[in-house]
């Protein structure tokens, strides 16, 4: 199977933000033209992340939750347990996908996953992400280097939304957040939702196939993930 035939999907479990950020940045910087595209699926420990253009006034209160200045686009957001985070490490040039196409793919895979539940959602041209009844359910931040993407999308499934009240989410004062658990009557199946989103995302990446990998990314595991977390 060639690198272009399938995207490798790695489930990293629950991990601190900074080691994962360092690892995906390193993979992007060192990958060759023939190295496989990957999607990393992760649930982060509680953390606020501030994008490159982030402004301090969008942080409204001190909570004791760490704040990390990162290199994605956008303003401040929150990551925590119960949120599905997907980082597509995609060679955009090789797949024939533009940056705007990648952004739209990340938004639409969530929109379509929500539609599978009978929930009407939409992206907004003025504020990247996915919205249900004017409330934000998924945040998006992307970085492209050497023709490849990293960072990605964070989809609220079943989490404590309280920390969002300490910030202006994505730089928008008064923006309300929502999550899948508050929109459906049955319990959220996080594994099923991951597979649903992956399926829709692969379709938007020119109907790419994908394969689940049971290990950690081999080139990165020893260097960046030797922290005792498994």
- Ranges where pLDDT stays below 50 over 5 or more residues in a row are 224-230
Biggest sheet architecture: 8 strands, mixed
Shape: globular
> With helices defined by DSSP (H or I, 4 residues minimum), what is the helix count?
5
Question: What descriptive keywords fit this protein?
Answer:
230 residues; alpha/beta; 11 strands; 25% helix
Please describe what this structure looks like:
There is one protein chain. This protein has 230 residues and is of the alpha/beta class. It has five helices and eleven strands; from the N terminus they run E-H-E-E-E-E-E-H-H-E-E-E-E-H-E-H. It has helices at 17-30, 92-95, 99-116, 190-204, 218-224; strands spanning 6-15, 38-44, 47-50, 67-69, 76-79, 83-89, 122-124, 127-132, 135-145, 148-156, 209-213. It has an eight-stranded mixed beta sheet, with helices on both faces. It has a three-stranded mixed beta sheet with strand order 4-3-5, with no helix packed on it. A hairpin with a 2-residue loop joins strand 7 (122-124) and strand 8. 37% of the residues are buried. The model is unreliable at 224-230 (pLDDT under 50).
